[in-house]
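In this supplementary section we document a worked example of the pipeline. Step one takes a protein sequence of length 307 as its only input; no multiple sequence alignment statistics are reported here. Step two produces a three-dimensional model, which step three serialises into structure tokens for compact storage. The input and output of this example are shown verbatim.
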Amino acid sequence: MIDAKHLLWLAEISDLGSLSRAAEKLNVTQPTLTRAVQVIEARVGGKVLTRERHGVRPTQIGERLVATGRQIAQHRNSAEDMIDLWRDGLERDLRIGVGPMLASSIMGKFFSSLTDRPPKYALKVVSATASRLIERLNNNDLDIVLAPEQISLLQDDLVQTRILEDELGIFVGSQNQLSDPDNIVAPHMLSQQSWISVGALSGIYGSNQEVLTQLGVKNASSSISFTGDIFMAMEMLTMTDSLCILPKKLTELSTFSSKLRFLETSIKLPRRNVAFWSRRSDRDRPDFLDFRSRIESYLSSLGENYR
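The serialised model returned by step three reads:
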């Protein structure tokens, strides 16, 4: 039987590409690592590492063993985290996924507000596109996702609870001629404009092209598209005469709100509500209910316009 520690070491050697660097990180001698590799190879009956000019890389069977070693490292780290939580008096951690627009608008302030009344659980937060976050929720890599409400992404084992009502809007910077607050923009005025597209690959209904088609806008194209990050798009919007379709309330709550103008249009744009996503089996867990209560309370504190 192969020693789990040896597989963990093999993964480190592979990731670092060097026995000497792995030995330094693991705080063991290089001969110790060499002997561990030899033990694995004796069990396999072949090489698990091959030498190259600038280091080592795993063979085909070595790659498979390295993958197992990485899993061992992940489980070990999870155990260490569990012990740290227990020592700090916390019950567990919650793995939270946050969509890019939420991350750039309200979530920093929300998490800061938790310091006044800390929960009995730790938070691990990641930000990515909605489709990627929902995929990770399905795979049990996340516990909760805060992302746009979306019927097409619903699956039997996932549930979503609306926490913020919002809608899409067209935004421009002060340099665009349409930024006059007295204008009500008709669809034909949006043609031939320069557009910035966000979330085109997010898997959420309401991409630039879908909304422009709904508006009946022709001959419009995006000069640049952003997926997975909203900050760059909003910064670019303030510095150019481009237009961009963004969630209205979240944009008004962002740090760019004073530099952007919402265009009143003659056609109502689609909803872009925000939901609290979780697995159905977890929806009534006390820590989930506590976290949802906290985010709902925070949104309520922002005022009637942001509920």
